[in-house]
Write a structure and sequence with these properties.
The structure is a single chain. This protein is mostly helical. The protein is built from 15 helices and 3 strands. A 3-stranded antiparallel beta sheet has the order 1-2-3, with no helix packed on it. α5 runs antiparallel to α8 and α9 (215-234) runs antiparallel to α12.
Length: 357
């Protein structure tokens, strides 16, 4: 008769390290990061509740829940499921996508200024999307494809300019700023070639807005995040090793070139899909990963806390522009630009003091 079969057993080692019986699979959970994730989820739930219940038409929590489950009245169903919920879900998806994109780039470059909007990937995606909007008059799917191609082309251009010099240091930021300025000029040129109506629509889109976002936008960014975020999480461990240096990572069995390429493609794709849905929304990709990493005191990329932080920042910014400045219809890009500009000034001052020390 065959001997007894060894079944894997889960056991906890050193408090927060979970391993299988044979040690084949292990997972380390940092207590502070776990607490931060729980806190962000709690705050995000409150912001979602306020967003869905307040506005020109006040609704109770019960009315919102009944509308979500398909048991609400006609008015509540229209307000929640047609007006507020798609916009909220779009904000959550775009915020999470931008934050994870920024977290990956900051980890790859070892630079807190490494984000898709600083390096130029966002403007590259905007060029691709504007080309589809103005020249081809494309659909939502075609705009997303154009934004993705534009972002990938920009990443390729930056990579070629940095070839043989590595991705670390302020050199990448300087190159990215130069590429971003060139792409901004291309965006301006495309607008000048458009009709008056197309130019107005394109300029409004370039500010970054969540207005008039429907289920097709929420579905598009939701699908992108559902596919790309798990891929990024799977590669997080390798990315953390790459942060320790190429020699150390290779000694630990990590294919550095393949890991960097895969994570760079995921970062660009997330930023591109977010840009295609809402237009360029600045500084979420820059600020959210840094805030998540500092609050969680994480030694790694902290992708999940970054995703929640990005979703929270964008949803909160959109709530502010909707409720505080009503009835003026401000695009959410104005709020994130203001917050992000102040954060960027603080970050530059902090980095300057560190370099002097």
């Amino acid at each position: 008769m065959p001997g007894p079969v060894d079944t894997p057993k889960i056991r906890v080692v050193s408090g927060l390290v979970i391993r299988t019986g044979k040690g084949g699979v292990s997972l380390r959970v940092q207590g502070r990061a776990l607490a931060l994730t729980a806190a962000l989820l709690a705050v995000l739930t409150v912001v979602m509740g306020i967003t869905l219940t307040t506005g020109d038409f006040q609704l109770s929590v019960g009315e919102v829940l009944r509308a979500v489950t398909g048991k609400g009245t006609g008015a509540a169903d229209f307000i929640v499921n047609t007006l507020r919920m798609p916009r909220l879900l779009t904000a959550l998806g775009v915020g999470a996508a931008l934050a994870v994109s920024g977290a990956i780039l900051q980890s790859l470059t070892g630079n807190s200024l490494g984000s898709p909007d600083i390096i130029g990937f966002t403007n590259g995606s905007a060029v691709g999307a504007l080309g589809v909007i103005i020249v081809l008059h494309g659909s939502m799917t075609q705009i997303a494809i154009g934004a993705l191609l534009g972002g990938l082309a920009t990443a390729g251009a930056v990579y070629l300019l940095m070839l043989g010099r590595g991705l670390q240091g302020f050199r990448l930021v300087v190159v990215g700023i130069g590429v971003s300025a060139l792409l901004l000029a291309v965006n301006s040129y495309l607008i000048t070639r458009a009709t008056w109506q197309e130019a107005l629509e394109a300029q409004a889109w370039l500010i970054g807005s969540l207005s008039n976002r429907g289920w097709q936008h929420a579905s598009a960014i939701g699908l992108a995040v559902a596919v790309l975020l798990p891929l990024a999480v799977v590669l997080t461990r390798r990315l953390s090793m790459v942060e320790m240096g190429d020699t150390t990572a290779m000694a630990l069995g990590v294919n550095v070139a393949r890991t960097r390429t895969a994570m760079l493609v995921i970062s660009v794709a997330l930023a591109a899909f977010a840009t295609a849905v809402t237009g360029p929304i600045w500084f979420i990709a820059l600020a959210a990963p840094q805030l998540a990493r500092r609050l969680g005191r994480s030694s790694g990329p902290a992708l999940l806390p970054s995703a929640l932080m990005g979703a929270l920042l964008l949803a909160l910014s959109d709530l502010v522009v909707q409720r505080v400045f009503a009835p003026t219809l401000l695009p959410v890009g104005t709020a994130t630009g203001t917050i992000g500009g102040l954060y960027l000034i603080w970050l530059l001052i902090t980095e300057s003091r560190k370099s002097r020390a």
